[in-house]
Design brief:
Layout (H helix, E strand, L loop, with lengths): L1 H16 L9 H21 L3 H24 L5 H24 L5 H25 L7 H19 L3 E2 L18 E2 L1 H44 L1
Antiparallel strand pairs: 1-2
Helix pairs in contact: 2-3, 2-4, 3-4, 3-6, 4-5, 4-6, 5-7, 6-7
Amino acid sequence: MPHSSGTLKKARSEQADEEVVDAIFTIPNVISFIRLCMVPVFLLLLFGGNDVAAAILFGIASGTDFVDGQIARRTRAVSKLGQILDPAVDRILMITAVLGLLVVGRMPLWIIVLVIVRDLSLLAGGALLLARWRVRVPVIFPGKVATTFLFAGFAGLLLNTPRFPGLGVVDAAWLPGLNAAAVSWGIWLVYIGLVIGAATTVFYVYAGVRAIVSARREGRAEEGGGLSAS
């Protein structure tokens, strides 16, 4: 808990020091919008059997997440819209990728359910925090690492080559890589991303609860101050 508290304080401090603008048409926001427009094109390529093109497009769409973030910070173009749009596009890409891989039969259902439930929960929780308590839990570095591993793993599964024999330690068909069936190398990156993602989800929940408690205390303090003044 002390480590998590320190991380939360550091994230809040960085958020406070970071200048946020109200501009909409910034270069990072345009990049995020272009990434969003790549989603339907990616699905058309994947369902059309163009694995290589779909993997390349997905790699570009997911890789530019780092680019727009760096541009926003280096050019002091971090915007309120970007703080919402950028992680939302990441979640949409994530959900689209796993659903596409499910349709083409390259990912077991339990991974799809796990990823979708986590991402939708983070989206809904973040929106609730912003709308109800006017607070936002910043994305932490391990969260970005988890997303990177998942995106790289999805790209490998989309490419679907080269394929390697599984470890053969279990017979379960729903554990690719651990059974004996040949599978893309991307599955191992997905597993790593899932483990890191589970850990960061615990932190986000903890940070969200702390933010709510803090917001309620500040609200009571302001109300109490108002009563005293009257």
